[in-house]
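Hey team,

Filing this mostly as a record. A colleague (T.K.) asked me to run one chain through the structure pipeline before their review meeting, and I want the input and output archived in the tracker in case anyone asks later how it was produced. No errors, nothing strange. Just documentation.

Input sequence:
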Amino acid sequence: MNQCGPDFSPSQLAWFCLKSQPKHEHIAALHLRRRIDTIDVFCPRLRIRKNTRRGPVWFVEPLFPGYLFAQFDPAESTQAVKTTPGVSTIVSFGLWTPVIHEEIIQELRADFDQQELHEVTRPPRPGDSVSIANGPFQGLRAEIIRVLPGPKRIQVLMEILGRTTLVEVGANEIIGEKPVPSFLAKAPNLLKKKGAIWATAEKPLSREERLAP
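Output structure:
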């Protein structure tokens, strides 16, 4: 395998980031677990409730589209990992293959259940940008001004025939943007502090640095 992170022995378990084939994150995780007995796989997904033109619908989406994480011994399992159905490659930058710290994976895992799902249940809030899902204003963009007490009514501001108008709609009539899980607010600091893949990959080692004693 290509050179890994600092203080890493090529004959030890470590976490790596894998790139999956398009929309095959969960499939890649399934095949990895079936194919390699010693591997640990983490494929975090979000369960999100969205209002659609068909009404409220639950969707499951990957937290990191196109990527998942796996812990394995690169000296033994690199080829098996790379040739697993659903896996495109092990993420690397030239000869630099970043290793992800165990603590980062465990911090992320703490916010997911045994099925590696995190349910996002963020209610509509003033200032949110939304689309109207049905009714006479279907398809129009709007901004939530106020969430009214009572039977799930919302005041939104939208442009109708060139005029900005305040309209009251039902909460099930709006389609909000994809909510961001609250636990991700701590992710940038955690990744920076622990030297995760996004930090270690900022500047790959030069040839001279790799060959230095």
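Quick notes for T.K.: Residues 129-176 form a domain with the SH3 type barrels. fold (CATH 2.30.30.30). The two ends are 20 Å apart (CA to CA).
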